[in-house]
Amino acid sequence: MVYHNLKALIKGIRACKTVADERALIQQESAAIRASFREEDSYARHNNIAKLLYIHMLGSPAHFGQIECLKLVASPRFSDKRLGYLGIMLLLDENQEVLTLVTNSLKNDMNHSNMYVVGLGLCTFANIASEEMSRDLANEIEKLLGSSNTYIRKKAALCALRVIKKVPDLSDHFISKAKNLLTDRNHGVLLASITLVTEMCQTDEACLNEFRNAVPLLVRNLKALVTTGYSPEHDVSGITDPFLQVKVLRLMRLLGKGDARASETMNDILAQVATNTDSSKNVGNSILYETVLTVLDIEADTGLRVMAINILGKFLSNRDNNIRYVALNTLNKVVGMDTNAVQRHRNIILDCLRDGDISIRRRALELSYALINEQNVRILIRELLAFLEVADDEFKLGMTTQISLAAERFAPNKRWHIDTVLRVLKLAGNFVREEILSAFIRLVAHTPELQAYTASKLYTALQADISQESLTLAAVWVIGEYSEILLEGGIIDEDQPRHASDKDLLDLLLSTLDSPYANYLSRQFVLASITKIASRPTTGVEQQDRIAEVLAKYTTSPELELQQRAVEFASLFTLGELKGGVLERMPPPELKATVMGVVSENKPVGSTQGGKDADLLGDEIPSATPALVNGQPVQNNQDLLLEIFGSTPAAASPTPSGRAPSLSPQPQKNSVQDILGLFDSSPSLASGVASPAPGPSTNSPSAFSLPQTQTPSRPPQQQAAAPASRLASYTAYDKNELKITLTPQTSAARPGVVKILARFQVTGSTAISGLNFQAAVPKSQQLQMLPMSNPDVQPGATETQQMQVIAPPGSLVRLRLRVSFTLAGRAVQDQVDFSGFPPGLTGGNS
Description:
- This protein is of the alpha+beta class.
- Helices cover 53% and strands 9% of the residues.
- Helix 3 runs parallel beside helix 5, helix 6 runs antiparallel to helix 7 and helix 13 runs parallel beside helix 15.
């Protein structure tokens, strides 16, 4: 059955009971339309195109009607042209060759005497114009911009916008006409012309400077909109043409940025808009928001900036969550610009932490971090700790890091600092980053007057709760290190000291060893801690024997690292006086700023993911975290891994001490070599002692500086030869006056784990600056990187960077390397694939 018009076709399709029936009817009708096209009937063509466009809307093929649409456009009748142009806009796009045939029709219709026909041509051009068509018809568009008809001028301005987007070089053609359009009194034309000028200014710097002279005109237009009375044609909720006001404010923001003279011209009208706009409805709020953004972007007066921030503070009291979110988001961006003005709204920002909307809580939290300073640190940290108690788990990792960093930076005294971190460990000990824990231990070591207080607090906290991992690790370390202080001075309580015996301490530590919350890392800490307690003179013989029994029990542990520690610690008991020297209290480590990176690693400290290789980051491919080492930024680029493998880059695990390696490492003391000698270990096996790597070891995190590996005794000849065979270097990159060599190092105790030392040398006579070295491995392998020793490489000098790869035993280590640096003022970026390591490197053969 053939349907003679669109209405009949729609009825027929709606009458179909199944999809198959509908599909069959459409196919039948499409065949009838094809046959009708061949008959060249102009009346039927109009009907057929209308039916074909409906078929296209239903998702069925309709491309065979493209030429027929061109024939309709050539018709003198307006109804035919309208339907033909509609068909062209729906069935064609700018990439199709058929579009070339449309250009002439458009040119003719743009010169038509009927303004509605001209409007059809302009509308079609604005939707489908290609680069070639834009060049061909740019002169016609420019001519129509000067038309006396507002209907045509408005559409021509939007066509000029399309031309500039397709061919930015043609923007010069429209400058003079665009200036004239800004004086137009018709709101539609003004809206289109301001959109055009905004695009021109964003595209071409020369246009931006040209239109800065038009700022007084824009100010006049905006003032007319603000001060005009009720205009029913343009009124929206009592405000005159808010759409035009927003467009004018955006253009003013663009023109005033970085220009004091233009900004000075805008100040008064911006203050007037901010003061007179009604904020009881969303329409007014949208204008106020654009006004705030404009004030904050231009070179505005200080008083105007404060007013803008106060408007954002007022938004925070709004019941609409969208408005509050926008306000928090904007305050986050401007808090560094005028912190004092934002501080005035601190209480209401803290109230947002209790909001039911998680996105608002997140933004309020970020803003709260930025507001912390020396004056308000006590108040804000107290509020953040209160929120930490009830916060969702996804917030806790970031919160513990930020609270600890703020305490480290702004703490009024050491006692308050220690109390704050202790509170964090109690509330969210399972969500504390390793470097935060390390910084806390450094703080305790450097505060001898508070060591008894800290040890007592940790002892009491551990008695109350052994489920918080970082609390357990900190307590075990501190109790092991300062057990004699606890035993001699007792547990410092609020009222009076309580006596504690060596049995009490040991019972508490062993209870954590056997608890369901114990993991691989906490057991290592406990073994080291009880060994230290055994070496103290305050520990009785009975408890020393008990500790020896525990160590003996773990000498047969199936976990290799625990077994090795137990064997080594047990052997210390047979060494008499040497035991006391080896296990004496550690000297306070060097104080350094905590690595202040972005909290992107969603992994609590000491996570046992990956078994004994817990220091590697799951199965993601990490890159170095952007960090501040001693207050100086370490340059990194986290986007490489996304480009290479499409994986999410994660922050690299920090060193066991929680610090980035020193840029100028000092050689180890002889006492460390003596400790290695006690266990008959080869010095080459202790990374960071005799290894050429300048950074610290990347072995499993350790509570104490004890050797991590142990091998059976070898003849002296074998001991001397082993390091040489293991430390062969392979050239991975040698061009652009930069040579990179990779030195792999393996251990029989950890098959599949390869430590790699990258060395960077300049082969020419010119220094390299800003060197950024990035690496990625296949998804079956895992990678950890430490920061580079120095991103500037001088001729004759060698800079280094440590990496660690964990791969399935027997597999080949493959790396994709990317380097970027500046050489003699020229930026160089290169990428290479490296698979030059010998096979069997991961097979556990030393």
